[in-house]
Specification:
five-stranded parallel beta sheet; 5 strands; disordered N terminus; disordered C terminus; binds thymidine-5'-diphosphate
Length: about 230
Amino acid sequence: MSGPAVSGNPGDGFFVALEGGDGSGKTTQQRLLADWLAERGHEVVVTREPGGTATGTALRAVLLARRADGDALSPRAEALLFAADRAQHVAEVVLPGLRRGAVVVTDRYVDSSLAYQGAGRALPADEVEQLSRWATDGLQPDLTVVLDVDPATAAGRRGRDAGRTGEDRMEAESLAFHTRVREQFLALAARRPGRYLVLDAADAAEDVQRRLREHLAPLLRSAAPAGARP
Ligand code: TYD
């Protein structure tokens, strides 16, 4: 899965992607991170995939619904819909935010497709990567944070939160599926350690957040604080 070099971030902003399995606590970490960034004077764009735009919200409903009629989404159709959501998200939310100098924090990005559609559904990884690269025009995060969680632990957390019937189409996949997803996130992080931070999501949320802030603080020099913008 080697590819061309990272496509440059087009603005003064900074692009952070939070990745990890279902139930890894990304939403909590995103909220805590946004609070901290705002306190430091940054404009923060909090967003997510799938569903960061109006078009994406419609796609999300198709992607995550568990259909009673048994009409399963094919793996390739699934990959294309996630890529379509991402293309719209980049064009409408991520790029404009970066151009304004904001810190854009997305809950999931390209690596989710590499992990879920590539490793989980076992589509050829290089093809899923090419599809995502085309969808994003090569835009990659400045930092990807992997919240690593044991799939069995995460399933237990979700069960407490929502009950088994509350699981969406992806969450309802097998433990083997979620184990492949986890291994792929870790493999991607190992491939380019300078662009990744792997944190143990089993730790207390405040500890995870503290490590994330410690790692991010020196990297944020490139993002202009809101007060410094003209
Ligand atoms: P969501 O409710 O946002 O889950 P989470 O809170 O765990 O992020 O649902 C998103 C689901 O879609 C999640 O199971 C991961 C999956 N997904 C993919 O399979 N491929 C992708 O490219 C993306 C962005 C998400």
